[in-house]
Amino acid sequence: xxxxxxxxxxxxxxxxxxxxxxxxxxxxxxxxxxxxxxxxxxxxxxxxxxxxxxxxxxxxxxxxxxxxxxxxxxxxxxxxxxxxxxxxxxxxxxxxxxxxxxxxxxxxxxxxxxxxxxxxxxxxxxxxxxxxxxxxxxxxxxxxxxxxxxxxxxxxxxxxxxxxxxxxxxxxxxxxxxxxxxxxxxxxxxxxxxxxxxxxxxxxxxxxxxxxxxxxxxxxxxxxxxxxxxxxxxxxxxxxxxxxxxxxxxxxxxxxxxxxxxxxxxxxxxxxxxxxxxxxxxxxxxxxxxxxxxxxxxxxxxxxx
Amino acid sequence: xxxxxxxxxxxxxxxxxxxxxxxxxxxxxxxxxxxxxxxxxxxxxxxxxxxxxxxxxxxxxxxxxxxxxxxxxxxxxxxxxxxxxxxxxxxxxxxxxxxxxxxxxxxxxxxxxxxxxxxxxxxxxxxxxxxxxxxxxxxxxxxxxxxxxxxxxxxxxxxxxxxxxxxxxxxxxxxxxxxxxxxxxxxxxxxxxxxxxxxxxxxxxxxxxxxxxxxxxxxxxxxxxxxxxxxxxxxxxxxxxxxxxxxxxxxxxxxxxxxxxxxxxxxxxxxxxxxxxxxxxxxxxxxxxxxxxxxxxxxxxxxxxxxxxxxxxxxxxxxxxxxxxxxxx
Lengths: 305, 329
Prior knowledge:
The structure holds 2 protein chains of 2 kinds.
Chain A: H1 2-29, H2 33-37, H3 44-53, H4 60-72, E1 78-79, E2 84-85, H5 86-98, H6 100-121, H7 126-140, H8 143-157, H9 169-199, H10 202-209, H11 214-251, H12 257-266, H13 270-298, H14 300-304
Helix pairs in contact in A: 1-4, 1-13, 5-13, 6-7, 6-9, 7-9, 8-9, 8-11, 9-11, 10-11, 11-12, 11-13, 12-13
Chain B: E1 9-22, E2 25-38, E3 42-46, H1 53-61, E4 69-78, E5 81-82, H2 88-94, E6 99-102, H3 106-109, H4 116-126, H5 135-145, H6 151-154, H7 164-176, E7 182-186, H8 194-211, E8 214-219, H9 222-228, E9 231-236, E10 239-245, H10 246-251, H11 256-263, H12 303-307, E11 313-316, E12 319-321
C-alpha cells in the first residue's frame, strides 16, 4: 500500500509539472498581458516599466525558469487585480467552495444511491422509468439554467430562499441543490447498472442459499459490490464539482474558487489564473488519490496489486 | 455403493413443472420431474446442457432466476411438507438449514468484498443455539472440517487470495454449516482441475458419511456419477427418462438415451476410435413433441413413440424408464 501511494504521488508530481508548463505557455500564447492592462494610449516607457514590474521582460524560457523556481517555493506570483499573492487569494476563497461540496455530494449520494438500488430492484417498472427520466433531466439540465430557474421560483416568486451570496443555512439550499442535481442523476445511473450486474452474481445466489434476508442480500452483499464503480465516480464527480462550481458560484454570487476562476478569466488576471489552475489540479489529484485509497479499502482485490 | 433402501425419504419431488414465460412463448425447461431422495443417499442427476438439471435444483431452493421462470405445478416435499407452499419467510428458514446448495463456479460464488470468515459467520450465526462457543471458533472449525490448512489464517482472507479448489471447499463449508438434511451439488467440480476434482468428491463423500445428509448431485459426467452416486436419474428435455441404481444403469441401461450417453463415455480399455455420439439436437423446449422427446434422435423409433409419451415403466428393483419398448418387470 505504501509503495502504491508513493507511486501515485510520483505520477501526480509528473502530471503537475505538465499542467504547470501548459498553463504557463498557454498564458503567454494569448499575448502580452501588458496590452490588456494599460490604456491604448500608454507611453512606451509606461509599458516597459510595467513589463519589468510583472517580470515579463526577459526571454520566455528565462521567465519560465523564474516561474518554476518560485513555484517550487509555493510562490505563484501576485494577482494583478487583487494586489495580493495569488496563492493567498486562492486559499482565502477555497473554504467557501469546500463548504458547498460535501453537502452536494451528500445530497447526491443520499438520493442517488437508494434511487439506483430501487430502480434496479424494480427493473422495467414504472418506478424504474420515472427514476430514469429524473436521471436524464439531471444530466441534461445545464447548471446555469437550473440555478436561474431555482432563483426565479424560490427567491423571486416565492421569496422563500435568498438568491445568492454567502450567509446562513438558507443561503446553502439553492447552490447545493444546483450542484447536487447532476450528482443525483450520476449516482443513480451508476448504482442502478452496477446493482443490476451484481444481482445476477452467483455469490448473491449463495447468500440467498444461506437463508439471508432480502434486506441483507440487497443492501449488504449487492450494494457493497455495486459501490465500487460508484466510488470510482466520486473522484470524477468531485473534480466536476470543483470545475463546475465556476458556473454555479457565478450564478449564486458565491465567493468561492469557482467564482475566483471566473474573475481571473474576465479580468485577464494571468498570474491568478495560473495559480488557480495549478492549485485546483493539486486539489483534484489529491482527491483522486484519496478516492483510490478508499477504493482499495472497499475492494480488497486492489490491495495486493 | 449399495443404496440403503431402509433410509427414510427426506426429499420427494412429484411432477415438478418449472417453465419460463417469455414473450416468444413458454419454455418448458422442467416439465414433469419426479424423484425421491433418502437420508444418506447420493442421487445423481445427469443430462446434457440445457436439459433442466440446474433449473430443477433452483426450483427446489425456490431461487428461480428472474425473467419469467415460475414453478407452476408439482410438489416438493421436504420432511413431509410441500415447500412450494411456504411463505418467503418460511423459505428463508428452510434454506441453508434444511436444504442447501453448492454452486458450480467457485470463482464467482463467494462475495469478493467480504472475508471468508465474514461469509461463513453469516451462515453460522443463523442457526446458532446458545452454544457458548464463539462464532469465530465455530467458523475455524467449519474450515477445518472441509480440510482447509491453517484455517485461523484463512478465515481473515478474501476469496481472491485463495485457489479455486479452496474456494469451493469454503462454499461447501458455508453450504453445510446449517447442517442441512439435503445438499444440492450443482456440478461442483466442473470448474475445478481434474486433480482437485477427485479431492473434492472425496471430501463430499466424507462429509456426507459424517452428517448423513442426502445429496442431489448434478453433473454431466458419468465418471463422476460412478464415483459418487448410489442412484442416478437421467434427464432429457425437461424430464427424467430413466432412474435406477448406478450399477444397474451402467450395466443394463434401458432407455435408448441412457444407452447412447453411456456409449459416448470414453473408455480406458478397448479400441481407440471415434467417440460415439448422439445424432441430432434435443427438441426445442418451447415446442415439445407430444410423443417421446427422444424420438427424433432414437434409432428404435416407432409410430407409437411419436403419438404419445410412453409413461414411466418399472423395469426392475428401484429402476424405471420412460420408454415404450422396455419390458416391465
